[in-house]
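Researcher: Please predict.
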Amino acid sequence: MPLDLSRVGTGRSEPLLRPRDIYAALPRRPWPYLRHEQGEVLEKWFGRRERRDVVIKQNTGGGKTAVGLLIARSTLNEGVGAAVYLAPDRYLAAQVRAEAESMGLAVTDRVDDLAFRAGQSILVTTFQKLVNGQSVFGVVGDSREKLDVGIVIVDDAHAALTTTEAQFRLTVPAGHAAYEALSALFASELQAQSPKGWADIRAHDHTASVPVPFWSWISQQQRIMDILHPHAGEEGFKFTWPLIANMLHLCSATVTSQEIQVSPPCPPIAMIPAFAGARRRVYLTATLADDSVLVTDLDAGPKDVQQPVTPGSAADLGDRMILAPIALNPQLGEEAVRRLARQFADGDRDGDGTAEAQPVNVVVLVPSTRAAAPWRSYADVVVHAGELPSTVRALKDGRVGLVVMVNKYDGVDLPREACELLILDGVPRPMDPTERREAALLSGSPTLLARQIQRIEQGMGRGVRDSEDHCAVLLLGSQLAVALHDPKQRALFSPATRAQIDLSSSLAEQLTGKGLDGIREAIALCLSRDPQWRALSREALAAVHYAPTGTVRDEAIGVREAFNLAATGRYIDASDRLQKAIGMVSDRAVRGWLIEQRAAYLHHVEPAAAQKLLSKALDDNPFVLRPAGGVTPAQLRPAAVQAEAAAAFLSETYADGTALLLGVQALLEEVVWGDPERSDDAERAWEALGRHLGFASSRPEKMYDTGPDNLWVLGGGRHAVIELKTGCVADTIDKHDLDQLGGSVRWDKKAYPQVTQQLPVIVHPSRTPHFQAITVEGMRVVTLERWEALTTAVRSWAEALTHGQHRWGNSHAVAEQLAHHKLTAGALFSTFAQAPGAATS
């Protein structure tokens, strides 16, 4: 008689709760056992599962997806409530569902699936599906059913944070009726806040932006509502408007020639009850070194976030060699590295034109279409986000060659042969108005630096997805090289990545000053899985452990708690909470930014006190909003001796010669000609260049919304009044630009009557004025040709100062080199600038 298996085991009534037990009981398992690190994490989570927020940190490729799915299944078995697993995009959500099905776990992609509603399957969808103004999970104030959720798993939490911020920003495009109405409503306030910025916006300069003063925004709430509300159901509004409509009084607005963007200080995530009210929230992350954004963006509990769940060891990462060619040899041009990349893709590792090795897939990450242009003649494929799935599949299936991916630094898995040589050629820059303003306010601050390092680390992780993987990583450009060399920036990488950077730096010492052949040899060690290199790599990681606590900055906690108070009308409490946070901040840029936000809250109840606060904010950060009464330009004191000032600045800024060379090169690279998007970077670089050379240097137009782009105090009652037009592509200097230069000279005379001589300088691709333009008396022009000569001189000056023990801190050595390279106050503009040519039509 055959055995009836349906009668076996029917007495069990208690479902399994421990994730490891759940895995062991699965009907089909992709692996006989969970990895040791996965088991550790699951056991630790199980002990903390009653906490509202849990951050789980594992290295890339550490099996986070399986961990998240098993946690979700455990929560379902416990009867806590529905389980939702959120991936960054649809492509990765499909991958998660495929992995769940390979494990025999029930999943669905539909919110209305009965098994999901009954707690029998896990909903796997995207974060964007949950967080939007038309969310099928329900939004506060709408008629939809508000889904009750037991646990939300947020995979790739760093990518989810980017989505969160975007979902709570309302963008009104130029040409839209609401854009025109809002621009007209605030025209006078925008002009008062920044006459030049407003004129640039009206002239359709898409690099210009002006924030609407908070006092003007708050006073016009009813009119703003009347303008925006009629468009609530339109395509560009309906996914954001319901999330911020009740928070308009707390929002800020930034105007550009292309759009007006409205955004709150923190995302009001409480508008999504399914997330805000979930009994458990788990954040899976590999690269979140600074966890503060979980608090500011998702309102996670600071104490919970500061106690992450991690494996006992951080050694579960594949082999990576991380090199920055320009740090090894400043003479190595980027074009040479592009040729090297093409040769490795063809199997020509020694560069002799003959393939002697197996061709490899080379993946290049670039931040923009413009940045992809130099790679096109070398690339087999240039791919944007929408075309990624098919390209990624092709890379995983076999050889594609050299693939350039535009603005995709996360959410792409390229294991094993899918990517063996990874190149980062720049990192994404702030694109929308809110990000651009915040980047300008926080330039050089630890807050902005942490975000930049996070993006770099995300990019570097694309080619290593598990402990058996390998990938060589090249970082192009001085900015990325500085990230590897500067101790402050290196400290912001995760422990395992930092260990690999340290190991690669040790190897790089043998390559310093060598040409491409040395880099070829090093890369080949990694790609050929050289046993000695692999042993060194494993040894470097063996003792690495995750940080025992998460990093949550004090000001981040204050910003979130203050916003939550203001959202309920407690403006004085919100102001007081920010004041407490401000007292714990040492960075002046961050402090000024926080004081501006405090003033915005205080304005609701004490407008006069808010204006006084704003004046105080300027002392710390000259780029915050101008008070309603305007600002008196600060008196600039010239350096007593240029060389002494330069030596003091260099000594304070750079710890060693390599840091000096990389820092100067990174500064010069920020001046990009012919790209209007990089105009602000050029202005910032010129200000820094002045400080490097020993001049008092400032940006009056940014600080006071009037005056020149840059002002250098050359000493002896002499100012260089500088207007930058590096983004211009015209073959003549037009009337508007020369009128602007003349206006800046007049501003300088009025603001600094004690200065007896103004030197007008315009940085422009042409030295020929348009026939309708009137030149400014005594003006000089820095053309692209003269700029290139100046950059050569500055590089040579910096390099000369590295020949000897800390020569850059010796004022006599600095003076000697300034004179030799014609960089003194008396010689610089006569050498590296020209008088304007004859006018032409």
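Model: The domain at 642-832 is CATH 3.40.91 (Restriction Endonuclease).
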